[in-house]
Amino acid sequence: MGEWKDCTIGDIGTVVGGATPSTKKTEYYENGNISWITPKDLSNFTGRFITYGSRNITEVGLKNCSAQLMPRHTILFTSRAPIGYVAIADREVCTNQGFKSVIPNENTDYLFLYYLLKYNKDNIENMGSGTTFKEVSGNTMKNIGVRIPASYEEQKAIGSVLDTLDRKIEENARINKNLAA
């Protein structure tokens, strides 16, 4: 095992919040082709890679709110109601304001980052604040301390091993579901 280093989430990726276009304007949603993910979309989501939510938005909707299109392999992390649902964008997506997603830097493996955020879910949740419901701010998310392998290759190796295990678990679940049907 190689050298590990202490850093923050902001050191290994760009933290991005989401937004909701006005729901009063049908032109922001009708016939939209931009994936727009909400925490509700992840509430019963059992996979790791997400492509679409229950609704899409239009280009006009995207331009009229502060949401931004994030690249494939962005790690989506719900930051409120509840904190800690995690998924990997399997295409360009945007999210509502219930997320503090992380776009991995070029020297950060996206699979390693996914597992890192899952592993730190409880720690991140404990940093939330608020009276009605807890929320993690973008600034808090950026400044959360983590320990990671210094080498990209080691991050990739760890992510790959965990990915292989999860793929086997997912395949077993599919087989069991088919056997039960």
TrEMBL record:
Pfam families with a match to the protein in the record: Methylase_S
UniProt keyword annotations, A-Z: DNA-binding, Restriction system
Domain Type I restriction modification DNA specificity, chain residue ranges per copy: 2-177
Annotated TM spans: none
InterPro entries attached to this UniProt entry: Restrct_endonuc_typeI_TRD, Restrct_endonuc_typeI_TRD_sf, Type-I_RS_S_subunit
GO BP, one annotated term: DNA restriction-modification system
Keyword DNA-binding belongs to the record: yes
MF annotations from Gene Ontology: DNA binding
Similarity annotation: Belongs to the type-I restriction system S methylase family.
Name the record gives this protein: Type I restriction modification DNA specificity domain-containing protein
Native organism taxonomy: Bacteria, Bacillati, Bacillota, Clostridia, Lachnospirales
